[in-house]
Inverse folding.
């Protein structure tokens, strides 16, 4: 049977790797593609995968795309309206949400309300709106299939658990390019240094987030919602080689881990075909060459972004939104060389201290908190 999918964020790292999986498997049909502003790559994707609908966030770029694919049978939409249309496209069975940032919340909710299963790669959706998303998934009877390597690993470890409760989640982290650095060393970090991840090939924002360990903090908050645990049941463990992608510990002390090479196509394909496991080309772990797997405790004083994430997750309400929004803006400024590296976390901390937390926010209040955070940072640091 042909599986039909829509991909939100098709020109990004997860989106392009999803299309690699589609290219290898001939029983997946792409019904809709959505991207930000990359006209050239989206045109190439349209010509290869022939979706019925394509969307670019930027309306001017969408006009350019319409002209470029005028010979194709495809509708080109734009903005949030186009993104929502792609999310609820009637042909799709599953929506891959791979857009970056809180822009993914409304399309994800719309897709779920339309009865679509979600392959979730947009962690901000659960970080900021997990209290809305998880009950909605249960109400609509849709699957939330994690695509992040760590959350996919946890999900895989739980198969066959027969409903036994988790004692804790052991969420692994590589430690990024600055593992073991002191604060004094971090003061000298340049943009070029922060964009060199030792194990994974990712987009610029998530690579910076990994280097600050803010990304791991977001993943802790995401895991809390996905797997129904408390923040303090999620323990971050540094595993520098990125061989163990995460582990779960049960009440009897048994620990189950998922291992593999650092390749995002595995969790992507697992989400697309769950519960089936298909052959995936690529490298395999060689246990004759693998002599040891080492672990470290994360340094939350030097990498304060992780410590602040635990604080935001414990307090909840709109504070995770503030944490996320402040980081988004700070990383954008760092990528533009407007601030230095350590200022990223200083901005997050300042925004959290400034914010008056609203408990159990609805989507409108979440988006208001996001805008308030942007306004605060603009007034404070520009």
């Amino acid at each position: 049977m042909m599986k039909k999918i829509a991909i939100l964020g098709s020109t990004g790292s997860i989106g392009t790797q999803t299309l690699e999986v589609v290219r290898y498997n001939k029983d997946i049909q792409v019904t809709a593609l959505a991207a930000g502003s990359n006209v050239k790559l989206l045109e190439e994707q349209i010509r290869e995968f022939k979706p019925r609908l394509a969307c670019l966030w930027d309306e001017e770029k969408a006009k350019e795309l319409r002209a470029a694919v005028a010979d194709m049978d495809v509708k080109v939409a734009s903005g949030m309206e186009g993104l929502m249309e792609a999310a609820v496209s009637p042909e799709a069975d599953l929506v891959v949400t791979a857009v970056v940032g809180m822009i993914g919340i409304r399309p994800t909710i719309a897709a779920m309300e339309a009865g679509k299963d979600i392959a979730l790669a947009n962690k901000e959706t659960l970080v900021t709106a997990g209290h809305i998303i998880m009950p909605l998934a249960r109400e609509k009877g849709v699957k939330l299939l994690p695509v992040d390597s760590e959350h996919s690993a946890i999900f895989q470890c739980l198969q066959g658990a027969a409903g036994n409760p988790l004692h804790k989640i052991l969420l692994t982290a590589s430690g990024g390019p600055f593992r073991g650095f002191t604060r004094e060393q971090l003061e000298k970090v340049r943009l070029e240094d922060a964009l060199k991840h030792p194990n994974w090939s990712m987009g610029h924002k998530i690579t910076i987030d990994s280097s600050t360990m803010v990304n791991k903090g977001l993943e802790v908050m995401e895991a809390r919602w996905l797997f129904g645990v408390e923040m303090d049941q999620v323990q971050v463990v540094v595993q520098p080689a990125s061989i163990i992608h995460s582990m779960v510990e049960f009440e009897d002390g048994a620990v189950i881990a998922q291992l593999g090479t650092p390749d995002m196509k595995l969790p992507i394909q697992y989400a697309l075909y769950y519960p089936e496991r298909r052959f995936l080309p690529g490298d395999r772990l060689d246990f004759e060459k693998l002599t040891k797997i080492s672990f470290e405790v994360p340094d939350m004083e030097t990498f304060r972004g992780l410590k602040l994430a635990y604080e935001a997750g414990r307090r909840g309400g709109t504070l995770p939104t503030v944490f996320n929004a402040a980081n988004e803006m700070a990383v954008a400024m760092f990528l533009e060389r407007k601030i230095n590296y350590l200022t990223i976390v200083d901005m997050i901390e300042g925004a959290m201290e400034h914010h008056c937390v609203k408990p159990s926010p609805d989507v409108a209040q979440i988006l208001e908190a996001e805008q308030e955070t942007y306004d605060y940072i603009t007034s404070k640091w520009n």
